[in-house]
Amino acid sequence: MTRILGLSGSLRRLSFNSGLLAAAAELTPEGASLDVLTPKGVPLYDADLEAAEGLPPSVVALKAAIASADGLLLATPEYNNGIPGVFKNMIDWASRPAGDIARLFGGKPVALVSASPGGLGGVLAQDAWLSVLRTLGTRPWFEGRLMVSRAGALFDENGRLRDEPTRERLGVFVSGFVAFVRAQPGSA
Ligand code: FNR
């Protein structure tokens, strides 16, 4: 089984990005699974808190999920042409302590998707993630690209991706990423 962990960068109940990952989970190819986590429950990073108490339980669980995943699929909203703070905060916590970065992120296959009600679909947030992914030593997958623009028209009132052409693009994207993950040395 190829295990993909989907990380949504939104706390919003009807988040387009969480909806994108829910659809991706339905579209994963045979022999692959996709679980989804959001920043819910992850406190603001505070070095004093870390020094006094260590990692919060939500971060310990997040790190365990990242460590056991074969690949990460980040679904990022775009705020002010950048990465939303809650999403960056989640990854910043997961990068602590720094000595654990290589174990968690080193060579880890990562793909990016984004959704936005705007016309550019979050492309600048995707770009902003690149330096973070490089710093963490991940192995980004660049062959597929998916920005979902005008998202308000593509999801229903329950946050489900209902637009068939977008679902098809997402299915192709997820299959491509899973193939990339499976092609990594040592992959089962
Ligand atoms: C936004 N939004 C937004 N959209 C975009 O395409 N480019 C941008 O720069 C911004 N900037 C921005 C700033 C702030 C503070 C907010 C709250 C929102 C709109 C954003 O894409 C929209 O709220 C999405 O619905 C967020 O993603 P989720 O929560 O639906 O996954």
Could you say which overall geometry the principal axes of the C-alpha atoms support? globular
Helical stretch tally: 7
The CATH architecture classification is 3-Layer(aba) Sandwich
Compute the CA-based radius of gyration.
16 Å
Major β-sheet, in short? 6 strands, parallel
Output the helix-strand order. Answer: EHEHHEHHEHEEH
The helix content is 40-55%
Strand-pairing-aware structural class = alpha/beta
Structural domains: how many: 1
- Report how far the terminal alpha carbons are from each other: 8 Å
**What's the number of extended β-strand segments?**
6
Q: What is the strand content?
A: 15-25%
CATH topology: Rossmann fold
What is the compact description of this entry?
The chain is α/β, with parallel strands linked by helices and 188 residues long. The chain is built from 7 helices and 6 strands; from the N terminus they run E-H-E-H-H-E-H-H-E-H-E-E-H.
What does this structure look like?
It is a single chain. The chain contains seven helices and six strands. It is α/β, with parallel strands linked by helices. Strands 1, 2, 3, 4, 5 and 6 form a six-stranded parallel beta sheet that branches. Helix 6 (123-135) links the parallel strand 4 (109-115) and strand 5. Bound molecules: ligand FNR. Ligand FNR binds next to helix 1.
Fold topology:
Elements: E1 2-8, H1 16-27, E2 32-37, H2 47-53, H3 57-68, E3 71-76, H4 85-94, H5 101-105, E4 109-115, H6 123-135, E5 139-140, E6 146-148, H7 164-182
Parallel strand pairs: 1-2, 1-3, 3-4, 4-5, 4-6
Helix pairs in contact: 1-7
